[in-house]
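Task 17 of the worksheet. Students: predict the tertiary structure of the chain below and write it out as structure tokens. Keep your answer in the requested format; marks are given for formatting as well as content.
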Amino acid sequence: MNRGGTEGLVAAERLPPHDLEAEKAVVASLLVEPEAIYRVVTIVSPEDFFRDEHRWIYEACRDLWQRGEAVNQVTVAHELARRGLLEQAGGTAYLSQLVAELPTPLVAEHYARIVQRDSVYRRLLQAAQEIAQEAYRAEDPDIARVLARAEARIAAVRQVQEVRDFVHLSEVLEGWQKTQAALTGPVAAEARAITTGYMDLDTLLLGGLRRSELIVVAARTGLGKTSLLLNFARNAALRQRAVVAIFSLEMAAEQLAQRLLAMESGVDSARIGSGVISDRDERLIARALTRLSEAAVYIDDSPVLTVAEMRAKARRLQVERGLDMVMVDYL
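Model answer:
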């Protein structure tokens, strides 16, 4: 009984993940080596530092660099003093201590990645705490909405990514060769682009809609953007057995389904909506219903969704069903 209480106390007092030595090494590297800022600034942001004084020093270094001024102990101390933070950051003595204790500035990126990684862990803990608090309160009767918010919080943590760096052309070409080889290999179905169903458009797109690409369909209101996207979805799902997710922020799922039914059956959408249809139309609609029911098209018509929520829902669909294409109507 007492042991359990002690373990609970230790857990409650445990600090979130952080590495003060790595934080010191990052800011010290900036004070010693002028070129270190170029290697570090794309990896960490001020919010990634656990200790306030390290965050203040990093901000001062970054802002000096952005203004094109020299970054060293003297200029950083002056910048901190100008902001009224020099004494709170430990004074000039602490800046000198950081420099004296720095092992080497040559691997500043390594230190920066440690700081950034621990920052992600802390964000994950914060998200988990918020999820747990909402679960304990149990105030929202719509559990699906609660799960969506939880997934959105986790997705927001995932969005913290390192900026990509330069890649030599040879590496890009090597990746291209692997992609081309996959188009004729045993994983061809996963690597090949998804065709739109419009031959001329597929030609312009160099084969169709390629995975990982973001394509924006733009036109004035009422010119058929939604209809075109639905045709893309229908062709992909029926002809290529692709799994398609549609986020419809403007039109209800039933309206989209009716449009898809009209496209597949060839029966005018207005007649389907009014219910005034002939026997022949009924047969066409029945056959279209059978074909569309087998299509892996998933529609979410939530009127208000954040990007994080859409990403969370898409990831869940990817895990549960697989996912080849995501459409958002509209941005």
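Marker's comment: The two ends are 57 Å apart (CA to CA). The CA atoms of residues 138 and 303 lie 24 Å apart.
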